[in-house]
Design a protein that fits this description.
The chain contains four helices and 26 strands. With 342 residues, the chain is mainly beta.
Length: 342
């Protein structure tokens, strides 16, 4: 990647300072920080950045105005508004600024062996969508679904304290125990059957480590674009009743705080099911215009004629319902219904 100059605008100085460190870890990249919206326009004119990154706490009207200002013909400056925080998305979001992803049809297939592999001494797993140094212009997101990582963390290791903003972050524990700690005052253990959600909103700092008892912590890390920026940060965690997902899709997430499961700031619904071999069912789309991304956690299935194996992903939209058939015993499927436009 060429040398780049960033102008980072936000209200949380801790997050701004952290973003500067993340950006400047990349050779030839420089970051200028602005915490006063009134100085932003002059900063754009004087510094002529390649990219303006909108962080947290900014007023909606300012965000709209600065985006319009940066996109004027004499400026033509790229704007990143759905960054989310941390270092994982930075490279792929920057790449996406300078290329146009192809528009897929109404079915998207991601075989398990096509997922980008993570292979560090403390972290392994797979990435379905562009994340970190993995970039594929055809695999940026599926509608509002931005990240689907299958993370395996070595015991005693993990993600040190880092920032997020303006992203809905969901963790589904699969094996082992994870220790979560954040600047909202939460310190919790996340175990198999638990669902954790954070609305990063105006900014949150957190860490995630695998408990030091030998073995590994395994979980799905999922990020969804919010329908509203700069909400108040929040944290929630629940334990599911496994009986409710036997040969049935149990709702584990929705946009309604009073509904089953956790909730997020997006018109999205997640369902989790464990199915016996040859069991058939249908899933009805909750909101017209939404699409569904199915992820086979274990086992195998056939969804609207598409055969899927363990860790395959399949996105489909433009339909009112989908037909699902398990094709092996102990099949576990995660359905993520999300807006295709938000």
């Amino acid at each position: 990647m060429k040398q780049l100059k960033f102008l980072v605008i936000g209200k949380d100085q801790v997050i701004l300072d952290t973003l500067k460190r993340i950006i400047e870890k990349n050779e030839g990249w420089k970051a200028i920080l602005i915490s006063d919206e009134n100085l932003s326009y002059d900063a754009v004119r004087s510094h002529q950045p390649d990219i303006v990154l909108l962080s947290s706490g900014l007023e909606d009207i300012f965000e709209q105005d600065i985006k319009a200002f940066c996109q004027e013909p004499d400026q033509n400056i790229k704007v990143i508004e759905h960054y989310g925080g941390g270092s994982g998305l930075l490279l792929s979001e920057v790449e996406a600024c300078f290329s146009e992803p192809q528009k897929p049809g109404n079915r998207i297939m991601h075989k398990a062996d096509s997922r980008e592999k993570t292979a560090l001494d403390w972290l392994s797993g797979g990435k379905t969508f562009s994340f970190g140094d993995f970039y594929d212009p055809e695999r940026i997101h599926f509608g509002a679904l931005r990240v689907l990582n299958d993370d395996i963390i070595k015991s005693g290791k993990g993600f040190g304290t880092h920032p997020h903003d303006n992203m809905e972050i969901i963790s589904i524990a699969l094996e082992g125990t994870l220790i979560h700690e954040d600047n909202l005052g939460n310190k919790t253990e996340i175990q198999p059957g638990d669902i954790q959600v954070m609305s990063a909103g105006t900014g949150v700092m957190h860490s995630e480590f695998s408990k030091d008892e030998g073995g590994f912590g395994k979980f799905l890390q999922i990020w969804v674009y919010p329908k509203q920026r700069n909400v108040t940060p929040r944290y929630d965690q629940i334990t599911l009743d496994p009986a409710k997902s036997h040969n049935s899709f149990q709702q584990i997430l929705s946009p309604d705080p009073e509904d089953a499961g956790v909730w997020i700031h997006q018109d999205a619904w997640f369902h989790l099911g464990h199915f016996d071999d040859a069991f058939e069912t249908r899933y009805q789309i909750m909101k017209k215009g939404n699409g569904v991304y199915a992820f086979i956690i274990e086992g195998s299935a056939e969804i609207d004629g598409q055969k899927l194996e363990r860790r395959d992903g399949f996105g489909i939209y433009g339909m009112d319902e989908i037909h699902i058939k398990a094709t092996s015993g102990n099949t576990e499927i995660l359905l993520m219904e999300v807006p295709m436009v938000w």
